[in-house]
Structures are given as structure tokens and as C-alpha cells.
Amino acid sequence: MLKTELLELIANGENSGVEFKRDDCRPEELAIEIVALANHKGGIILLGVEDDGTTSGIRKDRLEEWVMNIFSDKVHPWILPYYEEIKIDDSTRVAAISLSQGISKPYVLRHSGREEIYIRIGSTSRRATREQQARLFATGGLLHSELLPVSGSGFDSLDVYRLTDYINNIIGDTAKPGNDEEWIKRLTGMGLMSENEHIPPCCTIAGLVIFGLRPRSILKQAGIRVTVYKGTEKDYATKLDKVLDGSIVGLWEHEAGKGRVMIGDGLIEHFIDMIEPYISNDTLEEGDIRRERKYIYPLEAIREIIVNALVHRDWTRSVDIEVSIYADRMEIISPGGLQNSMTIEKMLAGQRSHRNPVLVETTRDYGYMEARGMGIRKKVLPLIREASGRDPEFIETDDYLKTILFPLAAINR
Asked: Is 0.90 topped by the overall pTM?
């Protein structure tokens, strides 16, 4: 790091990725900042800088060794930092400890025989709440929130017809369970139900949202909220404001001579049917007596994005997926940031990282998801570019991933 870069960091003050510390702090105090940054998006700790930005400089002997001992003794899992010292003037040096976002979250402080989890909120580090800890476990791949049991649900919350079709015709197992007990045992093994000796068997989140009769009546974040605005900003006067509920997958049956035929829509089909009038126009070409429907946004791209939102969302967030259609754009918000060490750049390049593997595999079995997990790169980007002449925009925060699509400019609404 150059001196000019250091001075610019100090001038900008502390934030979610920059922490100032004296080098005479206690080891556990420094470890708290390390853990919080690793559980966030990484960052830089400047030793020898006061909270107000004054450069008091480092004075501790063998400071690098002291720092590395803190990483090895008090931070778990181990994470490798980059340590350097920058000279401010002849008598003042500042140590910069740089660390990337951790890929083995949650990171914990080990001190006094306890392990504590810290997170970064703004320019402060604080203990994580139980909900925040659950999100960190899910982000690090140690907890699949889709397998959490949903209290108040049971086998009667599931659509047996959809389950039977899935087991018999998609998995290819003709041995249908003969009673409720056999069903529960089978579904528990598939990750769709959960059994505990202290409570009645209940659905997992995955089981309820894939095959549930009315998932949102029990799990309030299981729906898709669709809002259509008249203009380019949010307004109370809307063309449509509705929350969709239902099983993610459709209901199929086998018809002689036709093969598998969908006889009941799933949540994805309901969603497409609902938004279709608001993203298309009927046009009549001169000399033609038939109207042709032209789409302002490509349906296949929207379908891919909404499937991704359903299967990759963070189920510890108690909010629905939001789809907002404005006069000049469409926004799709999937609750929760990107999982593990995934970034928007990696996602666009085609890397795969599954937060909810049961949801991913089941929807892939039905053909809702692209088999190689390259739907964004191979389908969404080309279709959107062709339709609108520009790329979609992706915005990520800790709370959501927002996808912004732009309409086909040649079509007037």
C-alpha cells in the first residue's frame, strides 16, 4: 500500500470495511474486529490510527508476530491475512492488516473458553444475534436453511398428487408409500420432512415450498409479491398488487398419445400468467387480420430469473420475493445476499454455488432449471441483450440480490 493510499483511507474514516486501532489494544479486541470483517466482506485494520483518524503510529515490538499469533490463537477457522507497514514520516509507521471475505463462515472469536460470533454493522463490530448467526452458517454452507422444520406444518400440508407424480414418474420409483407413516419416513429421507422425538413430524422449508398446498399460510415468506406501477417510481396507485402462493412445481399426469401433460399450474406458471398482460402488447400488422403478441421482456429470461430467486434465496429472511414492474424497467428482488464466496462476477461467469441443494435438484428434475447451472450466462444475458440492447443490472447487498431488466425500446406501452 502506498502512503497516499493509506492517507486516503484514513481521511475517509472508519466504515464497514475499514477499522482504526491502537497497537496497545488487547488481543481479543483485535480478534473481534478480524472476526467481524471476515464474517462480512473482508477489509483493512489499520494499527496505529486513533478513532478520530489521528496517526499515533505503532510502538509494539515484533508487532507482525503478535498479530499473526492472534490470527492463529483467537480466530477460527484460520484465515490468512496480508500484513504490511507503511511509513508516514521518519518517526511514524502504520500497520495495515488486510483480509478477504471469509469462505468458511461463521468465523468466531475464541477467548476465555468460549466461542463468540461477531458481525460488522456500519463502522462497528457487535455480537451476532441468533438470526444473524443462522444466516452466517447458511452463507458458509454449514447450514442449509431449506432443511429447517416449519412448525405447524405436517404431511397434510403437502400435495400427495404432486408427490406421487414426482416419486413415480420423475424419480422412477414405482413403490408408492402405502400410508402416512411410510410417506413421512420416505419424505424425511428426501429432506422434504423432518422428524423429532419431541414434536410431531413437520415439513422442511424445501418440502413445503416445492409440494405444499398453501405454503404461505404457514411460511409467510413463501410467496411472490407482484406489483405493477403506472409510472417509473413506487406509488400507491398501482395497476396490480398481489401476493402469489402455491407449490413451486406444476401438477402433471400421463395421457395416452401425448405423454406427460401439465394439468395444474405451479407457482412459476401462475407468476408468468399474471405478469404476461403487463409485459406484452398485441400488434396488428398492416394487411394482416391476426394479432401477434410481442413481448416487452423475454419470457424465458424472466422465467429463469424467478426460478433462480425461488431456489437460491435465503429462507432465513422473512420476506417474499418481490417483482416490481415500472414503465421503464422490471426489478426482481431475491431475499438474502449471494451465498458462500459467490460474487456477481462469478455468477455471470457461470460459477455455481448452491445454498439450497434440495430445491435446486428438485426443480432441475422438473426441467425448471438449466441442467448445467448456466442459465444466467447462457440464457438470461443473451435474451435480454437481444431484446433491449443492454445488459441487465445486478445489485447485491447483505439483504438482497436485485436484478433490473430493461424493456424493448421499440414497443410502446
From this structure: no
